[in-house]
Amino acid sequence: MQTALFSLVCAAFAVTAPPPPRIFTEVIETGVREQPEITLFLRLPPGCDKRHPAAGLVAFCSWQRDPANLRKILQGEGGLVRYAMDRRMAVMTWDTARVWRGGVSHNDLTRAQERALDDRFDDIARAWEIGLERFTRKQGVPDRDILLHGISGGAHWAQRLALRKPDRFLAASIHVANSYDAPSHGAGRVLWLITSGEFDGGLATSRRFYHEARAAKYPAVFKMAPRLGHADRSDMGAFREVFFDYALALRDECAAGASGEGTTPADIMRSGIDRAQYVADAFNETILSGPLAATIPPSQRVPLPDARLVDRWQQLLVPKR
Could you give all domains of the chain from N- to C-terminal order, each with its CATH number? Predict the structure, then answer.
């Protein structure tokens, strides 16, 4: 009797278990030998389709190249997938390849080498854009104000993509990269979060890009994760999500005209940085305000443009070692 009852319960759960989320794909030829084609994968929030479009798009670029692993990421319920689904946003990822050597940035190359790499990635970025436009046409996915995140080799890819297609992106989060292109003129419209680990080999390179970005008037924040190597961690994920929420709030503020006609999210964030009451020390994790902020060495200062970022940074402070 108990065995029969147990079987009935199991059968009921088997019947009511939801099917795995559908993953849409697009394959685009690039014409680049190192990455002849790019495969994009898309997951829509429940109830969304072309007639009922998603509220936004999160684009996640990992180091993964295996289609099975990329599908598995999108079929999961954690991290940025959970973040996107909770906000009725679609999430997209794609396969990456090494068009350049890790650890080599634009200022480590000759002019000829830099031009050759630029040309190759320009072609890849165009192919990515074609894939995005197909998803927009077929599934109604928004093709502007995208939230972009890249990690490790995917961070190299994401940073270069945001520089070449800045009109597509609202914000870009670049984590544990060790290779960067030079800031481009148009990418100052993107809100930038550059993060690295205290023990990551790309820390110095990430800091260098942050300072280049700030010199180019990019709205940018840098954060180093204490006691972290070349990896991600929940505290960095939490800070990233607050940064994305901040970006979305600025987008909505501008759409409502609350900050004046023609004002952009980048304008608001830049103004917040210039007038920041709180300044973080990138190495010591402290936050100081007023005259005390001037005691932080200039190369370590990270002005925080919004109270939400200040609050989250303070929540993540760790005891001194």
Answer: 18-258 (3.40.50.1820)
